[in-house]
Automatic annotation (TrEMBL):
Subcellular location as annotated: Cell membrane; Nucleus outer membrane
SMART domains: Mab-21
GO molecular function, one term: protein kinase inhibitor activity
Protein name: Inositol 1,4,5-trisphosphate receptor-interacting protein
Gene: Itprip
Record Gene3D superfamilies: 1.10.1410.40, 3.30.460.90
Signal peptide: 1-20
Length: 549
């Protein structure tokens, strides 16, 4: 009890001592100090907030910088990896390029023409031959005897007649020309299927080429695509012919390429000889304002000269002579009073140096030079060497060899198919090129007459392979295995092989038409041959079955 009273008293005394009324002066400024403190606290809070914002921006900037550095490091690392990969691809590409170059050199030396061991490739090919029954030996022999031999017997007499008349016409042409100003015309030469004895389609047309040369003191300087000058890919196989004075340097004097000034003269060329009027060059059948021979001008001159020559000798003959085709300036036709006619082509050409390669102004009835870049570009023809090669190889083949028969049959089938479905990009020159390759690749004994069926199959399969790959190489250009007996110019042997199917790579419509024509020819082959084949007794065909290719 006393303890409780003591606690109560202590509490009361404490409350009285701490009452605010006992301290009036100290507690009188409390409200003013509180406002100042609050104001300072707000200012401090604002400064701390601004400081926080500044620190946050700095941290954000540091983080952004760090991320940028990390990203840059990643990019550098990726670029290093990409560079390593690129270096690897570059090295790999160089290795592949070197391998291709090594293969190309072997290819250029003639390995690309070694098809003698292609039986495996031939077996893989033949997709177009599935379901096609190939005529047997008896049917082919009967067809060849009736259709081919029966229509080619009078070719020799026709060749003799045309050559004799052409010689007389050219002699008259020389007499009407001005020997001091006009071109000098040489003797004509027969080329093509009529002179290689494989033409089968009528009408028979003789192809004659006539070399010509400029009058003195001029000469022709020929440049080809493989002579070192830069020619675009679409101009391969062409060349240009420059008309120069015989004493003029082929490269030309430096005075023609440099402005010497009015008071300076060239010590090698006088003003008279260096200045050549454009009319003089046009008289030499050059393209306007150039020294390059113009094929169109040459053909116009040749037509006029032939017309004058015929007017001089026409009284000697009992027939008429006329130009038969407008798009072939050298196409001539002899018309007899009986109504019969004989057609032949007389085409002017320019000899390449001292060889039998010639620059030809145009190809009669052919699409080989359908897209000539300009009239100053002349296509090169190797027809004389082609004829000599066939003659040279024929001497090593068995008697009555089947090489000409194969080409005749294939040419007949192709001509018949074109008469049904229209012309295509495939020509008889392509077929002859296939034969030339096989003649070089196959041994002599493979061309025995009893192997006609097998060799004809080889030609068709080889042609199918070329159509599939869009590659048929010119036989002479780039072929290092041309027999030395021919005397073929080495510059063309060392040139890049010329793909005769190159124009069809970009012209897909013509290529498709060519392939379709070939397939149609295969499907119609038996029908076309049987149409011209006499009935063969069954006893003659026993033991002979029709082998599908």
């Amino acid at each position: 009890m006393p303890v409780g009273l003591f606690r109560v008293c202590l509490l009361v005394i404490t409350a009285i001592v701490n009452h605010p009324l006992f301290f009036p002066k100290e507690n009188g400024t409390v409200p003013e100090n509180t406002e100042e403190i609050i104001q300072k606290m707000k200012e401090r809070e604002e400064s701390l907030r601004l400081e926080q914002l500044r620190l946050e921006r700095e941290i954000a900037d540091q983080e952004a910088t760090q991320k940028a550095l990390e990203k840059a490091a990643v990019v550098v690392e990726e670029s290093k990896e990409e560079k390593v990969r690129w270096d690897m691809w570059t090295a790999l590409s160089m290795v592949i390029f070197l391998l291709i170059e090594l293969w190309r050199q072997d290819f250029q030396e003639g390995n690309w023409q070694d098809i003698g061991g292609e039986e495996d490739d031939m077996a893989v090919l033949g997709k177009a031959f599935k379901g096609v029954a190939f005529p047997n030996k008896a049917v082919l022999a009967s067809f060849y005897e009736k259709r081919i031999l029966g229509t080619t017997g009078d070719m020799a007499r026709m060749r003799e007649m045309v050559e004799g008349f052409a010689d007389d016409l050219l002699e008259a042409l020389r007499s009407v020309c001005n020997r001091d100003a006009d071109m000098e015309v040489e003797d004509c030469m027969g080329v093509g299927s009529m002179y290689e004895n494989w033409r089968v389609r009528k009408p028979f047309v003789c192809d004659l080429i006539v070399p010509f040369a400029p009058p003195e003191p001029y000469c022709f300087r020929c440049q080809t695509w493989c002579s070192g000058d830069a020619f675009p890919p679409d101009e391969q196989g062409y060349g240009t012919i420059k008309v120069c004075r015989a004493d003029e340097d082929a490269t030309g004097c430096i005075c023609d390429k440099t402005k010497l000034g009015e008071d300076m003269l060239c010590l090698l060329h006088s003003q008279v000889s260096s200045t050549r009027p454009s009319s003089e060059m046009e008289d030499l059948l050059c393209f306007k304002n150039t020294q390059y021979l113009d094929a169109d001008q040459v053909m116009k001159w040749f037509q006029i000269a032939v017309t004058k020559a015929w007017n001089r000798i026409s009284h000697k003959y009992e027939f008429d002579l006329s130009f038969s085709l407008l798009d072939s300036p050298g196409a001539l036709k002899i018309k007899f009073k009986s109504g019969k006619s004989i057609a032949f082509n007389l085409t002017p050409v320019v000899q390449y140096e001292n060889s039998d390669v010639y620059f030809i102004s145009h190809f009669p009835r052919s699409s080989l030079a359908a897209d000539i870049p300009s009239s100053t570009h002349w296509f090169l023809t190797f027809a004389v060497y082609e004829r000599r090669f066939i003659q040279l190889v024929s001497k090593t083949l068995p008697a009555n060899a089947c090489h000409v028969s194969c080409l005749q049959i294939l040419s007949f089938l192709h001509g018949k198919q074109c008469s049904l479905t229209g012309p295509s990009g495939l020509t008889n020159y392509h077929l002859k090129t296939v034969l030339l390759h096989l003649l070089q690749a196959r041994p002599s004994q493979d061309w025995a007459p009893e192997k006609l069926e097998a060799r004809l199959q080889d030609m068709l399969k080889f042609l199918e392979k070329c159509l599939h790959e869009k590659k048929l190489y010119h036989f002479f250009i780039g072929n290092g295995k041309v027999p030395a007996e021919l005397g073929f110019p080495i510059i063309f042997q060392r040139a890049e092989p010329l793909n005769l199917f190159r124009p069809f790579v970009l012209r897909r419509d013509i290529y498709r038409k060519m392939v379709d024509t070939f397939h149609e020819m295969l499907r119609n082959m038996s029908a076309l041959i049987n149409e011209y084949t006499v009935h063969i007794p069954l006893a003659h065909t026993n033991g002979i079955r029709k082998e599908p290719l």
